[in-house]
Amino acid sequence: MVRYVARKAIGWLAMIIVATNATFFLASWFLDPRSNYRELRPVRTEDQIAHALAPYGLSPRWSVVHRWWYWLSGVVLHFDWGHSPTGVPVNSEIPRRALVSGQLILLGVVASVVIGVALGVYTASRQYSLADRATQTLSVVLFNVPTVVSALGLVLAAVWLNQRVGTTVLHVAGANTAGVDGTWATILDRANHLILPTVNLTLLGYVGWHLTQRSLLLDALGADFVRTARATGLTRTQAIRRHALRASLIPTATSVAFTIPAVFTGAIITETVFGWEGMGRYFTETIAKNDVDGVVAVAAFGAVATAVGAILSDVATVVLDPRVRVS
Amino acid sequence: MTATLPTGSLDGPLDAPPGARVDVPPPLRLGRLRLYARRFARNRSAVVGVIIFVLLVAYSVLGGLFTPWDWSRQDFLALTQPPSGSHWFGTNQGGNDIYAQSVHGLQRSLVIALSVSVLTIVIAAVVGAGAAYLGGRVERWALALIHFLLVVPSFLILALVSNRVSGDWRVLIPLLTVFGWMFTARVIWSVSTSLRERDYVLLAEFMGVSRWRIVLRHIIPHLGALLIVNFTLGIVSTVLAETSLSFLGFGVKTPDVSLGSLLADGSGTITSAPWLFAFPAGLLVLLTVSVTLIGDGLRDALDPTSMVGGRA
Q1: Which of A115, B39, B137, B142 ranks highest by number of CB atoms within 10 Å?
Q2: In chain B, whose CA is at the least distance from the CA of A302?
């Protein structure tokens, strides 16, 4: 098992390295760090701009390969991810932001999968009941609500609630309130700020799991091996839990990895709407500010998140599927 | 749901004595399209979807005729006004009429979504079915390309490129196409692999039909239902992608407007001027929900094993 995971991890590491370096060239091609200095007054000459960018390895006088080599040696030798065109080190931004986005994405994915799969299992074993039809309709509608609309709708609802109650029940902006002291107060405050963004990611994420898990379990319920299990004397619930459910979870587990990029995209919009200073906000800011090194760091973060999800889903597949042997 | 079609055997009762005259109801024959239309029309939510979609298209094409305001014209006497008689959907901070802007934005979003979906479904069908039938090296390379495109940070590349071209909506069409066809292609590939060994394909092979002709004339038509359903799904996902990009400020940019950029305008003043957000958001949700309902209806109408569409 350890060897299997290690082999998968090495494959994904190679993928991360390729993706990150490719993003560096793409970003260098499409972003122009000089534009940050062109709008300044008094007007800078091209020489002055090149001179200002040189200490950060972004000098337009260097060839792309030269700049790439400077960036790569910084990352490999000192784990230094470079600077923004105005000289802010990327390393000073990433840890805090990665933590913020990481908890958002992790909570969003876990809550989506748990709620979606549970709903799918519940409704599949009660096909065409009222609960099944109602949740199905709700899910189809939610599936079509864009992240932007749902996030802003949540903000409206929370603001309305706060006004009705008269105090701030739910925070709609930021990851924490300034000036909150004490361990418990801080934890509670942060948890409160987490509620709405997580609800938003979950609302949009759970639907896919609900609908696919429902149809997968329905397929499994009609399979011969479930009838055999019933014939050996198991009750319907036991047959579902021990045989049908386990078989139908396998495709679900394998597809977790492929949803991480979508969750990250959702997180970009969620962070923008709720004013979180995470990787998603960093993504939009760095592109708007022509920050090559920052964009590359965001791409690396996205690739790492995908790889972690992929490895976890591989492990889940091995645990669930007796046909997959790793040793 | 009442099915009025006679479903008895078309040859008349077999146990009738030879020579006896039996009144056999004339077999009801429907053309394929008529049959699909009947099955589709039985699905009430799908019909509602079609009605909403047609109304939205009509609104985007003709809606501008009913208002004196142009989407780009500014009314400096009415800044941030709620919906009223002269500005039906209200105005924004710059005095733009939200009704006229919604018409224009919906048009943009629809044109982008429809053209991207057509392009992606064509590419996905040719690559997916071609890879499955031709096999060997073609298949390996096609699958490698699909998997590579599935894991590259496509949203980031979309944002980078569309930011650079500074908001020209026409550039979004090829961009969204390049990063939109892989998933459908993979689904089509996995379905087509089972068609490779079908008798009718083998027969065509023995008759000396060329390989690409088999892909185009024998395998892809067999996937018709799958393609149509994926086409509608493609519309929804393109609308969502375009909206997200424009909302973040990368896709369609001012002075041009799309539903996404209208939402971005409205998001800052959501509590003080909720109409800026509500109308574009409502149109957007109506658009995606109606297309999904149509897609579901088509799936049931085109799938011969589905019982949702009633009998026949």
Answers
A1: B39
A2: B153
